[in-house]
């Protein structure tokens, strides 16, 4: 039986640079001390979520991949004997930048990367100003622990992304995330958003009969432009099994690390009883390639 001990490393990241890296290092050390083999970090974990504003100065913090960030994660992976899923602001070429997840093997090498495909442009999440949509497709990354279907934050709302990762042989869906509430929202609206976020991802797990891990940041980060009250990132990182069952979760309001053991062979067993892939009508799905099915 193939099992993997996965650490959800939920962080508060109010300060950039060494303060952020200190939080990352402490979280990974706690993961390793708890027996983790794979550790997942939140989206853009090198500091505050800078996409609340459109500021050309932030491009100065982008870096090549491989580069300083992957080398630093690689050193931690080697020291702690961990496979690490990290998230970096990639500088690919002049004027071309990506929101890029990386998988670092336990020997420190870069096993693979995924460039965020769905890029939002919403109040407080002005990512289209910074990031070119990914061009690597929905391909899992092979590592010593299995095939990781790594996606990033906004991707988690799109069933097509999870499906294509599953069709390409992913054994575990992994979502580094940065999502939270507008402090001005009512408590009822906050609850609707939170439940929708968790429900849609558990639905991806069920529809694709795959375990899933989503790791968010936590804490309130002010709006550098002063135009809003900032974002209260809701944490609540969680793992669920291939039938959507919750396996682990973290609180909404504090950083933390939890380790969950995931059975990577259970999906094959469940698919014998829930043969969704057998019954897919691939002959009837051409409409999915259209933006909208207009009557004409």
Structural overview:
This protein is an alpha/beta fold and 296 residues long. It has one domain (3-289): 4-Layer Sandwich (Nitrilase/N-carbamoyl-D-aminoacid amidohydrolase). 23% of the residues lie in helices and 27% in strands. The longest helix has 22 residues, at 187-208. The mean pLDDT is 96.
Q: How many beta-strand segments?
A: 15
| Helix and strand run | EHEHEEEEEHEEHEEEEEEH
Query: What is the spatial order of strands in the main beta sheet?
Result: 5-4-3-2-1-15
**Count of spatially separate domains:** 1
Strand content: 25-35%
Our Rg estimate from Cα atoms comes to: 18 Å
Instruction: Please state the overall shape, judged from the principal axes of the Cα atoms.
Output: globular
CATH topology call: Nitrilase/N-carbamoyl-D-aminoacid amidohydrolase
CATH superfamily: Carbon-nitrogen hydrolase
Q: Residue share in helices?
A: 10-25%
CATH architecture grouping:
4-Layer Sandwich
Question: How would a textbook summarize the main sheet?
Answer: 6 strands, mixed
Broad structural category: alpha/beta
Q: What value does the average pLDDT take? A: 96
| Count of helical regions | 5
Distance between the termini: 53 Å
The CATH class turns out to be Alpha Beta
| Uncertain runs | none
